[in-house]
Backbone:
């Protein structure tokens, strides 16, 4: 049985392309919420104003610094190094393969992550597949608004210290974890079987082939 890791990316824009630079990677284990990863990335380019409106991140004139909405400079690494740190964290923290779960995974997060891993020639053999909590919500709650904020509110999911859900990648990874675990509970389902239902889950190779056709 694979391990399940919930993750989220904060990026410089919103198109389904690795041309959107990753600014932050946040991830948390399904079973142990204290097992987590958070890493910030040097932007390397301007951040789209619409993205800044969401997550609050800006950069300096050199595009090497990442600054949060409070004006604090964040500890950044270049993207290749941060991606290696993320994969190293998964390799060291989990025995066996991993399923990465995110909200909007198939149309965005999985593609951005995989294409950047390919660009930097970083192995993703550890990742056996991806599951999408947005698809789960669409299938189970017809007529509902499916963004992460609306779903956590609709299911009365408590967030960190009662605060509104932010676009901080690790905060969102925690929220996705709570959302999926709540859905599984309400469906009275087995976690692994539910997450890997064919409509909720796609193997990594299947997604790679699909993204290649889109290019």
Residues:
């Amino acid at each position: 049985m694979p391990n399940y890791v919930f993750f989220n990316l904060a990026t410089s824009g919103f198109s389904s392309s690795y041309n959107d630079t990753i600014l932050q990677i946040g991830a948390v284990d399904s079973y142990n919420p204290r097992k987590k990863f958070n890493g910030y990335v040097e932007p390397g380019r301007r951040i789209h104003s619409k993205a800044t409106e969401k997550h609050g991140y800006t950069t300096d004139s050199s595009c090497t610094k990442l600054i949060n909405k409070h004006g604090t400079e964040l500890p950044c690494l270049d993207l290749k190094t941060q991606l290696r740190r993320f994969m190293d964290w998964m390799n060291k923290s989990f025995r066996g393969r991993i399923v990465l779960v995110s909200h909007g995974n198939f149309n965005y997060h999985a593609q951005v992550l995989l294409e950047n891993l390919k660009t930097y020639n970083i192995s993703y053999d550890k990742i056996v597949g991806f599951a999408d909590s947005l698809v789960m919500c669409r299938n189970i709650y017809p007529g509902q608004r499916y963004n992460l904020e609306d779903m956590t509110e609709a299911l009365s999911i408590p967030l960190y210290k009662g605060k509104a859900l932010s676009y901080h990648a690790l905060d969102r990874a925690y929220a996705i974890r709570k959302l999926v675990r709540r859905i599984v509970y309400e469906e009275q389902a087995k976690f692994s079987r539910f997450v890997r239902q064919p409509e909720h889950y796609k193997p990594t190779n299947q997604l790679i082939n699909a993204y290649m056709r889109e290019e």
